[in-house]
Amino acid sequence: MSAKIFSAVTIGLDSDIVEVEVDVLNQGLHNFNIVGLPDIAIKESRDRVSSAIKNSGFRPPHQCGRITVNLAPADIPKMAPIYDLPMAIGFLLATKQISFDTNNKLFVGELSLDGNIRLVHGVLPIALLVKDKNIKELYVPKENAPEASIVGGIEVIPVNNLYELVNHLLGENKIQSFPSVNAEDIFQENEYELDMAYVKGQEHAKRALEIAAAGGHNVIFNGPPGSGKSLLAKSIPSILPKLTLEESLEITKIFSISGKLGKNQALVTIRPFRSPHHSASSVSLIGGGTYPKPGEISLSHRGVLFLDEFAEFPKSVLENLRQPLEDGVITVSRAKGSLEFPARFILVAAMNPCPCGNATDPEKLCSCAPSQIVKYQRKISGPILDRIDLHVEVPRLKFEKLEEEKLGEKSADIRRRVEKAREIQNKRFKNMPFFINNEMNHQNIKDFCQLNEESKLFLKNAVSNLQLSARAYHRIIKVARTIADLAEKDVIETMHLAEAIQYRFKID
């Protein structure tokens, strides 16, 4: 006797239907075989499923003959133990221990040995698939129900254990479906640990962060140790605009697949701030593995990737940033597949000017030889620096500045200006597949960043005198467009270009 139950497989950030076919032959010696490119976690399902069925009070698989489970389509690799639950239900159907209509039902869940159902990863993409395929009911572990309920138009059934689910399917002791969550109600005013008001001095650096937050531009801080580079970078989340629902769903999918979503958490409601250590590997940064998973740059999508001690990262690791900084996506290619993950993040980097850190400090003597300084700075390649829009020197603060009791401008006030600039950009790019200035391509720059003759001449002289690249030329215009938006100006003026150009000076 055979049975078929529907489940799902997630490839990259998208899911597809998987048919879990269970065939039971009550002859010969017992054998439980799983086919369809399962990974080790799925191959071990036979032991979990057998114990869960037995401990739930049903006739277990070891009392039957040959059992074959096929995960179709068979040419797509299957990962993670989310097929435990559909396998168990399929076995009970195939052995006629239960009977119900399997149409318009999709099951995911990991079984414990006592029959309880454990949380799994990647439920949000599966819920979106269920809605897209017009499947009515989605059965998930109880802890995953809030995440799935974000997708309206489907019935989410939260399941505690196998016995409870069987009674529900038989029409006895029906499980109450999980109420749909209005995503807009989840967003609240967030409290941030750090506020720009408590960052002493460094007004030039604060202005750079405001521009970066408003237009999605990349920024690098260069200065001696203890000048406040890390504190400035860690304060940027407090001035970033509130997430939109579309952005939140994008981020939540990535966090769900990566297993970073908290228990009973429905949505990621604050922008990510990721700060990997400088010993991080290329795979941890860009993603990868036998079956590619998102890395830190994708986990910081629509948020901030902070790389402290920038020059201490291995050069081979930093070079992996070239494609995502330019294109906003990262393509991870492996022998078993090639996947594309989103990577639209604001890069905030911080570094010292030399190994001892005092090369630009007027009050401390640098102990590094010129060759050491050159070698240290060459760890960051020209192409990487060229992709960073705002180069900011952060000087050491004097005692008098540190002792000031007067607070600086609050993050909430800066955030209001940033959000106003983002609103202007949203209106400008209303019919475009992007919504911030940093994502404009060359054609968009021509369409939305018109310069008058005075501005063109000013920019021409700057490009010639500073020997800027074509990439730098376009990035200066995009930064100037953001500065004009912060000033609520429709036209890019010479003063906006002048401020944008000053950030192209690299600290040597």
Strand and helix map with partners:
Elements: E1 2-11, E2 14-25, E3 31-35, H1 40-43, H2 45-55, E4 66-72, H3 84-94, E5 105-107, E6 110-111, E7 117-118, H4 123-132, E8 137-141, H5 145-149, E9 155-159, H6 162-169, H7 183-186, H8 203-215, E10 219-222, H9 229-235, H10 245-258, E11 273-274, H11 282-286, E12 287-288, E13 293-294, H12 296-299, E14 304-307, H13 315-318, H14 322-327, E15 329-334, E16 337-342, E17 346-351, H15 370-377, H16 382-386, E18 390-393, H17 399-402, H18 411-428, H19 442-448, H20 453-466, H21 470-486, H22 494-502
Q: Please, could you describe this protein's structure?
A:
The chain contains 22 helices and 18 strands. The protein is of the alpha/beta class and 508 residues long. It folds into 2 domains: 2-181, 2-Layer Sandwich (Ribosomal Protein S5, domain 2), CATH 3.30.230; 196-411, P-loop containing nucleotide triphosphate hydrolases (Rossmann fold, 3-Layer(aba) Sandwich), CATH 3.40.50. β15 (329-334) and β16 form a beta hairpin. The N and C termini lie far apart (75 Å). The model has no long low-confidence stretch (mean pLDDT 91).
For CATH, the homologous superfamily of the largest domain is named as P-loop containing nucleotide triphosphate hydrolases
The quaternary organization reads as: single chain
The CATH architecture category of the largest domain equals 3-Layer(aba) Sandwich
Number of helices in the DSSP assignment:
22
Domain count, please report it: 2
CATH level-1 class of the largest domain? Alpha Beta
Uncertain runs are: none
